[in-house]
């Protein structure tokens, strides 16, 4: 049986990847789902390879939803991680399907609403990359509408960190909407929404978001006003003292 096989492998110092071991454990007649899920999640946090991460996440799909809730990794977190991994692997169509599954769930917890908003932010971005701008705008607007409605009805007082997470996602949603309107040629609407995102970032004293908005504005200006665009982008990167700046190599080439 599987248990004997794993024991034999251990006794003879054979080397198996954590993915293979967890896959074999899931083949047991009565798998210890909770222990397997905890091991996979631990390995997931240590894994940087996108293909291996995706393989681990697909193993978690075999874990009952109730167990995923117990180990603090509910199904919507799994689906959101799957969409992120799919996007990293360039499979946008699969990422879209995972996000649609998140949206179809009927949970009303703060954690679910926050995860759903992040997923819709990603979906709007994917539609924008695919130049399906009408869908990109619709997705961002729908996310903002649902997110703001939920926040207006909340009764519990959030911990400071929770408030920060919610405000940043809302700022990024408005920023994404401004980008999609700009790409669709609706410049005035884009400027109005961009200003709203900027004001929200200032209201919540979110320096990172303020400079993210500044950076995105600079990118949009690259072909219209290269000098101002370069100034905006460089200021954004200078203001955020982080190892990973907004600029990737391609964008650095554009402004240098």
Q: How would a crystallographer describe the biggest sheet? A: none
Helix vs. strand class: mainly alpha
Strand and helix order = HHHHHHHHHHHHHH
Q: What Rg, in angstroms, do the CA atoms define?
A: 22 Å
Measured between the Cα atoms of the first and last residue, the distance is: 62 Å
User: What oligomeric state do these chains adopt?
Assistant: single chain
Whole-number average pLDDT?
Answer: 85
Put simply, the count of helices is 14
Shape: elongated
**Beta content:** under 5%
**Unreliable spans:** 247-256
Strand segment count: 0
Q: Helicity level, as a percent range?
A: over 70%
Could you explain the architecture of this structure?
The chain has helices at residues 2-11, 18-26, 33-46, 50-60, 65-70, 75-88, 92-104, 110-129, 133-153, 160-183, 187-203, 207-221, 226-239, 249-255. It is mainly alpha-helical and 256 residues long. Helix 2 packs antiparallel against helix 3 (33-46), helix 2 (18-26) runs parallel beside helix 4 and helix 6 runs parallel beside helix 8 (110-129). It is elongated, with a radius of gyration of 22 Å. It starts with a helix and ends with a helix.
Summarize this structure briefly.
The chain has 256 residues and is mostly helical. The protein has helices spanning 2-11, 18-26, 33-46, 50-60, 65-70, 75-88, 92-104, 110-129, 133-153, 160-183, 187-203, 207-221, 226-239, 249-255.
